[in-house]
Specification:
Mean pLDDT: 80
Order of helices and strands: EEEEHEHHHHEHEHHHHH
Low-confidence stretches: 4-33
């Protein structure tokens, strides 16, 4: 990723909305009047639109396109970047997205009313063609996930469960620098963060449990690699 050269009118704050107990948001600002994304595929449509409108495409551009749902979709988008091989395999990208996850999930734990990200992070950008290729690669699994996911076992994605999920995302994201040297581990970590984001958006506790399994598998792979090399 590189720093965008476009002029910036932000003040280091992306205000999308106030979190509910599920980690989602209600619209507060004028630029957040569009309806909430109804699923992962619609979220990809918005990211794709941001890429078509901005070259290079910055993190701030993508966040602006997400709409009034805030914390869960931003976690989801960051996880998708780490997961997708086209962008996620670029050195430094998993660590950068890990930092986004840490900041967003940390503010979810602290019950902030809006997401704050520093300007230097909002302005990190990548070519729009890479974003569009990544979105295309994710289309098919997104359709499957949208059909399969639904509200169920909601106890784990409400109240204290939201904080547990946010803390799990922070732990995973904090390990992304190490994962960059272990093949495919960062991609698995991205899958876990994606699953947590979907679980919060859709209120799907089953997906949250799948994310926990992915998280444990990721740490097992990383620890095995370092123990074996030692």
């Amino acid at each position: 990723m590189e720093s965008s050269n476009r002029s910036v009118t932000r003040t280091g704050r992306t205000t999308i909305g106030a979190p509910t107990e599920a980690g989602m948001a209600e619209p507060q600002q004028a630029h957040s009047v569009q309806e909430e994304a109804r699923g992962l595929e619609e979220l990809l449509d918005r990211v794709d639109a941001a890429a078509r409108d901005h070259d290079p495409t910055s993190i701030g551009d993508v966040l602006d396109s997400v709409g009034p749902r805030s914390f869960a979709p931003v976690l989801l988008v960051a996880g998708l970047v780490i997961l997708a091989p086209i962008i996620g395999d670029i050195p430094g990208v998993p660590t950068m997205m890990g930092l986004v996850v840490i900041l967003v999930a940390g503010q979810l734990v602290l019950r902030r009313e809006c997401i704050w990200l520093p300007d230097w992070l909002l302005d990190r950008s990548i070519g729009h063609e890479q974003v569009e290729k990544t979105v295309g690669w994710l289309r098919k699994p997104a359709r499957f996930i949208d059909r399969w996911s639904k509200p169920r076992y909601t106890g784990i994605v409400r109240h204290a469960g939201v904080h547990v999920i946010a803390l799990a995302c922070i732990v995973i994201a904090a390990a992304t620098p190490l994962m960059e040297v272990v093949p495919f581990s960062a991609n698995v970590a991205g899958a876990a963060i994606v699953a947590f984001g979907i679980a919060l958006m859709v209120q799907d506790g089953l997906i949250a449990w799948i994310a926990i399994v992915c998280s444990l598998a990721t740490f097992w792979v990383v620890l095995s690699q370092f123990i074996g090399s030692g």
